[in-house]
Amino acid sequence: MTPIRTASPLLCGINAGFGEPIAHEVAGLREHRYTQVRQDLQFITDPRTVAMLRNDVQNSRIRPLWIIREPQAALMLTGDRVELCNEPNLNGYTPEVYAALWNRTAPALLSRKVVVFAGSISNLDQRGLDWLRRAWRCMSPKPTHVSVHRYPENRGFLQPHKGFVTREEEVDALRQIVGNATIAVTEFGYHTGRRTWRGFWPLRPWSDTNVMGFALQEWQFWSDMGVESAYIYQLNDGPTNSAIDRYGVRRLDGLWKPVAYSHHFISAA
What is the pTM of this model? Predict the structure, then answer.
């Protein structure tokens, strides 16, 4: 596969923690060289709350990507970057229903010069790509920006999803659907929590060193693939040792893990 190059280096972002103000985090994000932050607005309808979240990053060098649904569309301003829904393929949207949502919502946003990312599928596997392919056929106007998530199987960075020989083939399959649309990888990550095979057999947890190594490869891979931006999942650990609570690049005690620095080492394409 020949990557489709972007005009500028990969934009490196982080998932902030959904629905939470991040004003007190901005200095740390800047210090760790994140330039983008992804934050959920899907269940916020109060314009004052949206304004408060916007003010969190307004005077920083951090650019937000807002996750929205239809009720938040009218609150978006010229120059905003938005993602229409989060993992709709896992959250009750058929491809046709999502396409109808896009067809209703996108024209007004685009007319206000809001950058709108479509898709936000949960993974670059056959199921996610098939869902996007069906939605894409029904979407009008066709999106110029597309977002995807990518999470691994049990063997770490190199293992492609079932049906693909390499990870590059996953990206090629995506490109066959979306053409030259700008791509953002709005979630990727590795955790240090409990791991099981087929939901039962225990596996050795990945260490901070393992996660750092995988993330180094991820940042470089997405840069080599010519995507516009990638966002690591996520800022903070949670209180348990479950997988979902151990994706953080920062511990509960405030200590930043080695993975927080992984994007510093991307080489030029």
Answer: 0.95
**Which of 180, 111, 189, 123 shows the shortest CA–CA distance to 146?**
180
Segments forming the whole domain that contains residue 261 = 11-265
Which CATH number is 103's domain given? 3.20.20.80
Residue 233 tokens read as 């999942």
Would 6 be classed as within a structural domain? no
> How many domains does the chain fold into?
1
What are the pLDDT digits (tens) for 85-131?
A: 999 999 999 999 999 999 999 999 999 999 999 999 999 999 999 99
Q: What would the DSSP string read from start to end of 183-221?
A: EEEEEE----S-EEETTTEEEPPPPHHHHHHHHHHHHHH
The enclosing H or E element of 145 equals strand 145-150
Are 136 and 178 spatial neighbours (Cβ–Cβ below 8 Å)? Answer: yes
Q: What percent of the chain has pLDDT over 70?
A: 95
> How many CB atoms are located within 10 Å of the residue 207 CB?
11
Per-residue DSSP letter, 268: P
Question: Could you tell me if residue 5 is inside a domain?
Answer: no
Write down the H helix ranges in 60-166. 95-111, 126-138
Inside any domain, residue 1:
no
Count of residues in the chain: 269
Q: Which amino acid is at 4?
A: I
End-to-end CA distance of the chain: 15
Per-residue tokens: 124: 């670059």
DSSP-derived 3-state class of residue 164: coil
